[in-house]
Amino acid sequence: MFLQGSLFGTLTPGFDASFAECGRRQLDATTWVDVAPGWLSGSDRVFDELVERLPLRQRTGVRMYDQMVDEPRLSAWWGVEVGAPEPMPLLAEMRGVLAERYDETFDSIGFNLYRDGNDSVAWHGDRHRHVVTNPVIAIVSVGAPRPLRLRPRGGGASLSWMLGNGDLLVMGGACQHDWEHTVPKVRVTTGPRLSITFRSV
C-alpha cells in the first residue's frame, strides 16, 4: 500500500501533550470541535506500524439506510476489556493524555483504513450517543489527508477539515446528538488514510 509521506511524517513518533496548537470552534450553543494540526509527529511511521499490526478487515452485512451493505473501508478495534495492551505503546500514552485533558476514560480505540478515494463513511452520528450523553470523540488521522465534514443533523450547510499527517480533531458537547459527520468519496487522493478514534464506551 503506497503512501506519499509528509515532511514531518518520518520523524520519531511523538505528540504534543501541551496541545499548544489546539484551537476550539463553537458550532452552536452546545457543540464544539477542537482541531490540532500535526498533533502527532512521525505519523507515517505510526501509519506503517498500525497497518502491519492491526487485524484490519471489511465488515460485511452492515445495516445502512434500511439496506445490508459491506462497509467501504477496513476496520479494527481495541478495548480495555480485551485484556491486552494497545497495538502500539504510543497509543496508550496518547489515550492517557487525551483522557486527562477531556476528562474521559477513552476505553476503546477504533481504526478505519480508507484505502483510496472510493472508501468512505456516510453521514452519521456515533451510535454510542444512545447510551452516553454528549460523548467526546477524539480522532487522530495518519496517512494522506482526506476531508471530514460536519453538518447539522438532518441536513444543512457543512463544515470541512482536511485531516491527515497526524492531525487531531475532537468532537464534543452535543455533536453526536445534533450533528452528523462523514468522510466522503473523493476523485483524487495521494494515498490511504487511517483514522485512530478514541471513545468512552
Could you characterize what this model shows?
The model has no long low-confidence stretch (mean pLDDT 92). The chain has one domain (22-199): Alpha-ketoglutarate-dependent dioxygenase AlkB-like (Jelly Rolls, Sandwich). The two termini are 32 Å apart. The chain has three helices and 15 strands. By secondary structure, the chain is mainly β.
* CATH level 1 class label: Mainly Beta
Give the distance, in angstroms, between the N- and C-terminal Cα atoms: 32 Å
Envelope shape: globular
Number of domains: 1
Q: Estimate the helix proportion, in percent.
A: 10-25%
What letter string, H or E per element, gives the SSE order? EEEEHEEEHEEEEEEHEE
Helix/strand structural class: mainly beta
* Cα-based radius of gyration, to the nearest Å: 16 Å
Largest beta-sheet characterization:
7 strands, antiparallel
How many helices in DSSP terms? Answer: 3
Q: Superfamily at the CATH H level?
A: Alpha-ketoglutarate-dependent dioxygenase AlkB-like
Biggest sheet strand line-up: 2-3-13-10-15-8-7
Average pLDDT metric: 92
Overall number of strands: 15
* CATH level-3 fold name: Jelly Rolls
Stretches where pLDDT is under 50 for at least 5 consecutive residues are none
Strand content: 35-45%
Q: How does CATH name the architecture?
A: Sandwich
